[in-house]
Amino acid sequence: MRQRFGRPTPATIVALIALVAALAGSAYAAGRIDGRAVKVKSLPGNRLKPRSVPANRLKPGVIPEAAGITGQITGSQIDERSLGQVPSAGYADLAGFAAAATEAETAVNAVNAVDSQTVNGHSAGCLPGTTRFAGACWQSSANEAAVAAPVAAAACAAQGGTLPEALQLAAFAQQPDVVLSGEEWSSDIPVVTGPGVYGVVVVLPNGIINFTTASNLRTYRCVIPIVV
Predict the structure, then answer these.
(1) Of the candidates 154, 206, 157, 161, the residue with the CA atom closest to the CA atom of residue 184
(2) Which residues contact 214 (CB under 8 A, 6 or more apart)?
(3) Which residues constitute the domain of residue 112?
């Protein structure tokens, strides 16, 4: 007895039509869509099948020469010469050059200061007939003429110096080859008894400190700054 097939239902017809459309669309896509039909940068790298893109289709420089490296790249696998300079490293180099230049200039200035006989246009160093002591230039011998204290002070001022302080003059008297010429004037005034009447400290050859009236006549020596 022959078996009869019934009429297909509407649902079956719709399913057949959908199947045919799907197969036809896949076949069309396989035959019509290739890499040229894909918009540039429209597919992320993680959506591509591994080994699906040949190396000659990649932009030069995207894959390093060491193509055999797999997994994470460590610092030991990177040629440091292929890396550019970090911007902050450039600043560090400039800072190093600046520091070196400053140190070099300071060293040159120090050498020049030692050898220089002038500072900002002023004479530097002790002149002949003077001895360096206590950071200044002291006259090696006292002036021969004995004068009053105000006259002695004025004479030293005219040379750009002053009378010595009493304690420094006493210390200077103890230096080798230094002999005070009797009582010598200092710049110290221990007592004032009235207008124009005052005492001035004097120092004896043995370093003893005394004082006498400013109008008396005594010898003196001047202390002149190293830079005049």
Answers:
(1) 206
(2) 148, 149, 150, 189, 197, 198, 199, 200
(3) 93-121
Number of compact structural domains in the chain: 2
The verdict on 198 and 145 lying in the same domain is yes
DSSP 216: S
Task: Give the C-alpha separation, 30 to 165, whole Å.
Answer: 111
Q: What is the mean pLDDT of each run of 10 residues along the chain (228 residues)?
A: 65 77 63 64 71 70 57 65 64 65 61 53 79 94 95 96 96 93 95 92 95 96 88
Residues 110 and 151 reside in one and the same domain:
no
Cα-based distances in Å from 164 to 13, 140, 159: 129, 13, 14
Question: What one-character DSSP code corresponds to residue 204?
Answer: -
- Evaluate whether 198 touches 214 at the Cβ level (below 8 Å): yes
